[in-house]
Amino acid sequence: MPLLAASRIGARHDAQDWVFPPLDLVVEPGQNTLILGPSGSGKTTLLNLLAGLALPAQGEVRFRDQSLAALDESARDRLRGRHMGFVLQRLHLIASLNVVDNILLAQRLAGSAPDPARARALLARLGLGVHAERMPAQLSQGEAQRVALARALVHRPSLILADEPTSALDDANCAAVISLLLEQAAAEGATLVAATHDARIKAHFSQVLSLPGRA
Length: 215
Ligand SMILES: Nc1ncnc2c1ncn2[C@@H]1O[C@H](COP(=O)(O)OP(=O)(O)O)[C@@H](O)[C@H]1O
Ligand SMILES: [Mg+2]
Description:
binds adenosine-5'-diphosphate, 4-stranded antiparallel β-sheet, 33% helix, binds magnesium ion, 215 residues, alpha/beta, Rossmann fold, globular
């Protein structure tokens, strides 16, 4: 069974225009997938549809053979919380919580029991063990990014959705972040679907979906 299957989905934000033409996307478990396209081509919109944060104007998205549109909003929220992890363009760490509490909060929001041992083990694996008690403002950009990755993984999601995870990074950090994302996804048995305009990371993915720019 595919992890994710989108068939003939199209999106529009207003009455006139399709954001992208109707498209198909099948993601098998372990098939890390890149959605590649210029700014404005609809990558973030597509990720939102795959996560059930919005419903397509046409077509259907199925997650583990469950139609997202057949669920009501709260059921979609629960499914997303339980099975999906997000790495967003901005990191959205809670400034008033230390690193480990940020991770535990994410776990709680996903509906799992907070598991400090799991949170600390994940932080240690990401080289952040000594930073567990620090506040987000005391982290470098790279450290904060790894905390955001730990937060996305802590509840053992089967799908990780990453929006522009590397576009603000220089070549060395870009390579490090994408390797880390793929390594950690594999270590957790999760599949990565990333969206970017950053063609540098294309070679790391077994499937690439290109969105055309809009004229
Ligand atoms: N909430 C929204 N309301 C109206 N238009 C939107 C909204 N979000 C995005 N758009 C438009 O949809 C198109 C695709 O946006 P987006 O999915 O953010 O592209 P990308 O992530 O590839 O840069 C753009 O033209 C953008 O202006
Ligand atoms: Mg975007």
